[in-house]
Specification:
heterotrimer, A alpha/beta (about 425), B mainly alpha (about 300), C mainly alpha (about 300), A: about 425 residues, alpha/beta, D-Maltodextrin-Binding Protein, domain 2, 2 domains, six-stranded mixed beta sheet, three-stranded antiparallel beta sheet, 20 helices, B: about 300 residues, mainly alpha, MetI-like fold, 13 helices, MetI-like (chain B), transmembrane helix (chain B), MetI-like_sf (chain B), transmembrane (chain B), cell membrane (chain B)
Chain lengths: ~425, ~300, ~300
């Protein structure tokens, strides 16, 4: 009797649960959306907010909270959040942080959801980046989002005063050095200290090396750095030393020197352009950008890196994925690129006429065609922190003349392999 | 007897709010953290018992050795020097009276008031190579530019300077409070005996402020062993980049945080934390033993 | 009383001073003043400099022109306006102020109650309890941060004020410091109060607390500084923008890839420095008075 009653009640209860559950989902879903801090400021924030409003209009009852985070806060917040199940629902990060996030359990495998999207959507993206997000068959951790290729910004006032012909392209490293000689003779600095961080080092190393000679092989636990090419780059860093400001490319002091006509060359990502543009208006800074010079004529240097948007393995993952797919879609990426001149991985959006004319974007795209990836391979293994600092420490030691380039190269490869094997 | 019991109950009642919070938000987390140090702890996947593997991994790593060595050098310079400077400031302020005593004490305390991120931003500018304030001053004397924050020979000292700049005011205030409690007639007696200013400091001031001095030294030592913020902010200040050139400014807490949030090795980070805790507990025990030996004022 | 004290103190370290002052300053006095002024400049210069960066025409590089004095009020006001309109700085101010004040109140109350017991009385288990609490002073905060965070999450306190505040209330530092000061309270005064019929709590409230005023104010200021400057805890426990503290908002400006110029960064920094500075300047006077009153002991 009792059993019977409960049996008859069960479906009713279940039905109630389902209906309230659904109603609940439609009324009160809140998605936390974490982005880099520059995505949550000024123009970029307005555009992101527009995307959110459009998405919410199609999904009534959904609330999306966007939060901007500094690089580190973004990563540590996502890792700590994954540990407790309270992190963001949908978030961006650099592909170089991808495997850390996978290990921490912060990223959901979205392969099934991805394959369920229309072919026309999937075809919009850069194929290499889709492959990067899919490290194993049927395992996909992200949708490629924004990206960059490095550029060399030139202070035209400094160069003209030094008697450099700014119309003629810089042919190779030797040509670049001879320009810096002139700059030094006129009492100005040539470059920031390129050995101080891994990205500026890679901007030099990529002048001699190929894509297969950077990063690591996590199966054999060996670095892919080619010692001969490394020695060449290290030798060049030694030659750059007399022209260096001694500051890191990311120091605000470096940007200040460039803006105040004390520094000729400034190699960095396109994100440094807004303050330069502002300085051009405020103080008459004259500058342009060119490709990062390679060691020999025809060899292009540069670094490219990408941000992805990922989804946490949580209850609202399906909706979070829909949102991720929405913001990375062509129409949104066209508006993003057109408004900000920023590069992204949606190839079709970059071909749009409202976008392709943007000079900064065109240059970034050109740089990205040949540049080396920042910290490959992605999503396959986690580099110990000491891996990258070992490179910059070694490069700095050579630049300071503490070791010869050849010794340093042999030492470094040994050390990096040890670091990889240790972990 | 019964009044003694009621009094005991009153003692525990007064202690209970603090002790309760302490048990929940300190003891419990530390026990669960200790538990994690024996696991390959990956938040998402199920954790796996690995015994002492985390401990041996940390103990044999290159960065552990480097960080420990750095810490040893740092602590043996910064603690004595910092207290010497703070005591000097306290005596200096104490030798003024009225408005100027207040004025200088406030001025010397100001660095303590400033948030660290802000202090670090400014010191980076002071230390900037070639054109920073410090190098501008050096160039007036015809000296070559020094790379304070990237030359492995100067980094540690540059950091200790910031460290003392930030902490001296803190210790000064505590020492000053101690100085004020030294009965003035002690000095008069010493002066009548013909003691010089220096002799008064050594024979009257220092013995009288022993408990406060003990506090300042012990606390200084404990916080120096946990140094994190300043070297973090003066180097890359990110989990991808910290410790500076050749890990010259890498310290244990930093190495531990890097293993946790940078490399997602929370088990190793927990093990690291416990080794560090044991070290600090030993050092503090020695300090307490010393205080017992040399008498409590 | 306090006047006598200060004059005695002036002469105590330079016996020649009081006589010499009437005629001409001695060499030692001149040296003392030079030293004090130089140290004051070193200590205060950064704030002055930061102020100058904010209140100067933008575009002129700091590295070339060190900005030793402010040049433009308008530029500074404009910078501040940008910060207040383009970020949620006011909201962050509110969160930081509440976080800081409630933390101070909690720490002062709970640690002083416990310190009173540890400093003045004997009771069963005192040594053990004290030993355990002292242990926490020795444990690096970083060791407990992850488990404490997980606990806070289990309590459902993520992105709440109590999540920010409560885990930090058991301050072993505050306890240790107050014990050191409360040890100096003469036990006769406590006995006297007990003979007057005061109960245990009343003795604490009416005798011990007023006598520890200096220590409490010092602890309040130090707690203020520590809480206002606390970066890592709010970062992980209050990750949602509506609970951002000032430190987190400043962090957005300090990020290397942030699209901001140095004057804006310094404006954000300066605004973060103003409350602790004001707090300190206000309570400064009370510290001085408190010290003058502490003549009770001698």
């Amino acid at each position: 009797m009792f059993l019977k009653a409960s049996f008859s009640i069960a479906p009713v209860l279940a039905g109630m649960l389902v209906t309230t559950g659904v109603a609940h989902a439609q009324e009160n879903v809140v998605l936390e959306y974490w982005v880099y801090s520059d995505f949550a400021q000024g123009e970029a924030l307005k555009l992101q907010q527009t995307f959110i409003n459009e998405f919410v209009a199609k999904h009534p009852g959904v609330t999306i909270n966007i939060a901007g985070k500094g690089d580190d806060d973004l990563l540590s917040g996502q890792i700590a959040g994954a540990a407790s199940g309270t992190g963001p629902d949908v978030f961006m990060n650099s592909t170089s942080a991808g495997s850390s996030l996978v290990e921490a359990g912060a990223l959901k495998n979205i392969y099934a959801e991805w394959m369920a999207t229309p072919e026309s959507f999937r075809a919009q993206f850069n194929k290499d980046l889709i492959a990067m997000c899919t490290p194993k068959p049927e395992t996909m951790y992200c949708i490629p989002y924004t990206g960059y290729g490095s550029l060399m910004f030139r202070n035209l006032t400094v160069l003209e005063k030094a008697g450099v012909d700014t119309k003629a392209p810089i042919r190779d490293w030797a040509d670049w050095l001879s320009q810096m000689e002139k700059v030094k003779a006129s009492g100005k600095y040539g470059v920031p200290d390129m050995a101080q961080n891994w990205a500026s080092f890679l901007n030099i190393y990529s002048g001699v090396a190929e894509a297969s000679e950077w990063g690591a092989d996590f199966d054999t636990k060996k670095t892919l750095i080619n010692p001969e090419k490394y020695a060449k780059a290290a030798d060049f860093l030694q030659k750059l030393k007399p022209f260096s400001t001694g500051t890191n490319v990311n120091d605000q002091a470096t940007r200040d020197l460039f803006i105040s006509n004390e520094l000729a060359f400034y190699v960095n990502g396109p994100w440094v352009n807004p303050p330069l543009e502002q300085a051009a208006k405020a103080s008459g800074l004259k500058y342009d950008w060119v490709m990062v010079p390679g060691a020999t004529e025809g060899k292009k240097a540069g670094v490219q890196g990408y941000e992805f948007i990922g989804v946490a393995p949580k209850a609202n993952a399906k909706l979070a994925f829909e949102f991720a797919a929405f913001v990375t879609e062509k129409q949104q990426m066209i508006r993003w690129a057109a408004a900000l001149g920023r590069y992204n991985s949606n190839v079709e959006s970059l071909a749009d006429p409202s976008v392709s004319g943007n000079p900064l974007l065109a240059a970034t795209a050109q740089s990205a065609r040949t540049a080396l990836y920042n910290k490959p391979p992605f999503f396959l293994g986690t580099f110990p922190n000491s891996y990258w600092s070992a490179i910059t420490d070694n490069a700095s030691a050579v630049a300071d003349g503490q070791m010869t380039p050849d010794e340093a190269a042999a030492d470094l490869v040994e050390e990096l392999n040890e670091i990889l094997a240790d972990d | 007897m019964s009044s003694k019991t009621t009094r005991s109950i009153a003692h525990y009642l007064m202690l209970s709010p603090f002790m309760l919070l302490f048990a929940v938000f300190f003891l419990y987390p530390i026990v669960s953290g200790f538990f994690y140090s024996f696991f390959e702890w990956n938040a998402a996947q199920s954790s796996q018992f690995v015994g002492l593997a985390n401990y041996t991994k940390v103990f044999t790593s290159r960065s552990f050795e480097k960080a420990t060595w750095n810490l040893l050098v740092y602590v043996s310079i910064t603690v004595p020097l910092g207290i010497f400077v703070a005591l000097g400031l306290a005596l200096l302020v104490d030798s003024f009276s009225g408005f100027w005593a207040k004025f200088f004490r406030s001025a010397f305390f100001i660095p303590v008031v400033m948030p660290l991120f802000l202090a670090a931003t400014i010191w980076r500018w002071i230390y900037a190579p070639n054109f920073g304030l410090m190098n501008t001053v050096l160039s007036w004397f015809g000296m070559p530019s020094v790379q304070f924050l990237t030359d492995t020979g100067t980094m540690l000292y540059a950091m200790i300077a910031v460290d003392i700049w930030v902490s001296a005011g803190f210790n000064m205030v505590i020492l000053l409070a101690g100085l004020k409690n030294v009965p003035r007639h002690y000095y008069e007696a010493a002066r009548l005996d013909g003691a010089s200013t220096f002799q008064q400091i050594v024979h009257v001031t220092l013995p009288s402020i022993r408990p406060v001095l003990f506090f300042v030294i012990t606390y200084g030592l404990i916080s120096a062993l946990q140094v994190f913020d300043i070297p973090w902010l003066l180097t890359g200040s990110s989990f991808a980049e910290y410790g500076g050139r050749a890990n010259t400014l890498l310290f244990p807490v930093m190495d531990m945080m890097g293993r946790g949030f940078g490399s997602v090795r929370f088990g190793q980070a927990s093990a690291y934390g416990f080794m560090l805790t044991i070290l600090i507990v030993c050092v503090t025990a020695v300090m307490f033993a010393l205080r017992k030996r040399f008498g409590d004022a | 009383m306090s006047t006598i004290d200060t004059s005695a103190q002036t002469t105590s370290f330079s016996p020649a001073l009081s006589e010499a002052r009437r005629r001409s300053p001695s060499f030692a006095t001149v040296l003392k003043w030079i030293l004090a002024v130089c140290i004051a400049i070193v200590a205060v210069f950064p704030i002055w400099w930061m102020f100058n960066v904010v209140f100067s025409e933008p575009g002129v590089p700091i590295s070339i022109n060190p900005r030793l004095y402010p040049t433009s009020l308008g530029a500074g006001l404009n910078n501040i306006l940008i910060i207040f309109t383009e970020t949620d700085y006011l909201r962050a101010y509110y969160v930081s102020v509440m976080y800081t004040l409630l933390t101070i109140a909690g720490i002062l109350l709970f640690s002083s109650m416990a310190a009173f017991e540890f400093a003045q009385f004997e009771f069963p288990g005192k040594k053990l309890l004290f030993g355990i609490v002292m242990l926490s002073l020795m444990v690096p905060t970083a060791v407990t941060i992850i488990p404490t965070y997980l606990l806070t999450v289990q309590l459902g306190w993520l992105n709440t004020m109590q999540g920010l505040i409560v885990p930090g209330l058991a301050s072993a530092f505050g306890l240790f410091m107050l014990i050191q000061f409360m040890k100096n309270i003469p036990s006769e005064m406590i006995e006297a109060a007990r003979l007057d019929g005061a109960n245990h709590f009343q003795i604490y409230w009416h005798v011990a607390l007023p006598l520890s005023k200096n220590a409490l104010i010092t602890l309040a200021i130090l707690t203020f500084m520590k809480t206002w400057g606390n970066y890592i805890w709010p970062l992980i426990v209050a990750p949602s923008p509506h609970m951002y503290t000032v430190g987190q908002v400043v962090g957005l400006f300090n990020a290397p890839y942030s699209h901001t110029t140095v004057d804006i960064v310094m404006t954000a920094n300066l605004l973060a420095a103003v409350p602790p500075l004001v707090f300190f300047l206000i309570f400064q006077r009370q510290i001085v008075e408190g010290i003058a009153h502490s003549g009770t002991k001698g």
